[in-house]
Amino acid sequence: MLTDVRGNTEFNQLFPQSRVLLVDDDPLILEGLVRLLEGRGYDIVTAQGGREALAAIGRQQFDIILLDLAMPDVDGTAVLAFLNEREVDTPVIVVSGNASIDAAIVALRSGATDFVRKPYEPEELLRRIDHTLARRRLEKENGLILQRLQQSEKWHRFLVNSSPDLIYTLDAEGRFTFLNDRVGDLLGWSKEDLLGQPYTVLIHEEDLPGAVHIFNERRTNARQQKQIELRLKCNPGQRRPRAMNVRYRTFELKATGMYEDSGNRFETRFIGSYGVAKDVSERKQAEEMIHYQTYHDLLTGLPNRALFRDHLGLALAQSKRNGQNLAVLILDLDHFKVINDSLGHGSGDELLLNVGARLRQCLREGDTLARLGGDEFAVLLPALPMRQDIERIARKIIDALSRPMQIRDQEIYVSVSIGACSSPDDGDMVDTLIRQAEIAMYQAKTQGRSRLQFWLAGMQAPYSARIQLEAELRRALARNEFVLFFQPLIDCARLRITGFEVLLRWWHPERGLLTPADFIAVAEDTGVIVPIGEWVLRQASEQLAEWRKSGLPAVRLSVNISARQLESADFVESVLRSVELHALDCQCLELEITESLLMRDMESNAVKLSRLAAAGVQIAIDDFGTGYSSFKYLSKFPIHTLKIDQSFVQELGPDRPSPIVSAIVGMGQGLRLNVVAEGVETVAQQEALTALRCSEMQGFLFSAPLPDWEAARLLRQGDEPLDSLGAIA
User: Fold this and answer.
1) Could you report the per-residue pLDDT of 641-699, keeping only the tens digit for each?
2) 225 and 104 in one domain?
3) Which domain holds residue 265?
4) Which whole-number Å values give the CA distances from 659 to 245, 400, 454, 667, 692, in the listed order?
5) Do residue 562 and residue 475 come from a single domain?
6) Domain of residue 123, CATH code
7) Calpha distance 142→79 (Å, rounded)
8) Which residues are registered as beta bridge partners of 230?
9) In 403-499, where does DSSP find H-type helix?
10) What is the DSSP string of 338-377?
11) pTM for this structure?
12) Residue 223: is it exposed, middle or buried by C-beta count within 10 angstroms (0-12/13-18/19+)?
């Protein structure tokens, strides 16, 4: 019968070749989607960004839209809002690289039909597109049939049985008198099984009270009850494939009363109910999954911080009623980052799963274990009368985690630092207890790790100072409180300046001039180091340009790069922008990177540094000899300079040759690398380095770090040899 309908001219006009709109601001992704959909008979239209998408939607109608969320001009959420405002019924599948739960929730609530995360599996994406188009086509078919054949019983039967929804009628006693064919597809029942049976045989026992007033609805029009959700039982004796093989499915149901038309509105007789039940099981499962992901850690399945706070709030209320104590423990694995960096994140995740399993074994049934993030866990211990009980459980945890774990054929030992506080002794507020336990845990780490530390008054003082320093750091950049100093790099053979190492200083409004040792660790931890590092690059480039305009000799500036900077996505672009802004030669800029930083993400760092080296930027390894000192990375990275750590240079003397310094200088010469000795403070060290034919030196023997005007004064001396006995300083 469906084939006959499609043979009609009107049907062919209504269902032409499916038109698909692909929306993404990345042309490579658009090209990939086009290639994926080619050959499937779709009429494909592409839009590079939300603005082009809105224009395309305004020009023509589409059967389906594949939409990215994060776009620079008009984002995907705005496109969804545009469709909703104009009541455009085109289904939208969001294909987004944002894997967060919030992104999925916002997309679905904004009207998206489905949500697919990048990178996607091509077969899965095609399956979802086909499913959505098939459902849309079925809905259009039903609409067309309803419009054309609503007076025909034959076509009425076809419409009802082809509907994606369950349609039924009941008699006055609530027994089924009609069910469409969808009852078999959705619930596994045949119509013959249910006809003549009361509707209650399908209702989940817990939903019976709500079903009484909706399933057998007697009212009509505006008086009838609005649609509600009910769970309907599946046939337990019917084998069903895929997700249908469950005990019940959730439906959105709406019903209306049916009355015998006698021509007299005062003598109407109720003859039964007519209802439509829409299967919303997949939507409910998605909502439940989103809810679960909102309150649970996806790796371990443990409650996350939000759910832990809820449990703690309930436990506090209960403890106040019954007068019992409770305890909060914050646990952090010691040196977990070393395991992650050396064995990889896969092994780190497996270790966290093992830790979670062992922690569960140490706790009582009513205790709550949560993962707050990273390698940090939290434990809620309700109804603990004595401090000794907390110590006993903490010792049990420490002992359990101290046993070796077998991770991917490797035996790993871990330890844990624990901070604890109790209520009501240490407070009765959720956030206060968590914060105090965290501070106690940090205190345990500073006192030797693998131990329990209870909260004590006054522990928060150092952390309050750290918070204040972080706030001052953020303001310092906006208030232009940072300044650059320059320490000369000296040619060993000719004793002439070849460049400067750029050193950051902070003119603190109250504490005076601060060196990086006073604030750089906080800047790294909080991420403030990234904008500070970009500022240093811009200022160094600007200083070089200013010296060039003044006619001073050309020198190179060596700038230290932090881990957070190197890991940022636009690191290469930010370096090149700083140089290109002042039309400088890239070879005048040298980036200093430590050995340990290079090894954090070898592949990604090699790509970034190779791009910079190709543009002419020089790459230096700072503090060489204190880290890996491996020929492997020397050959893998585009390195130009090795800087010998000052701890090795200090070993040099008239009668004290340093085999390490000799080896590094010899290796640099063999690899044709520039070698710089740091921390040169005595003439004996200078003479030893000159004898070894080291390339360059720097240190207080020649000059302390200088402000820009003092550095410029040195450059104006031109090609005159420098006094190595500290005359510069």
Assistant:
1) 999 888 889 888 777 778 888 988 988 888 899 999 999 999 999 988 998 999 999 99
2) no
3) 163-287
4) 73, 46, 49, 12, 11
5) yes
6) 3.40.50.2300
7) 28
8) 251
9) 430-446, 460-478
10) HHHHHH-HHHHHHHHHHHHHHHHHHS-TT-EEEEEETTEE
11) 0.47
12) exposed
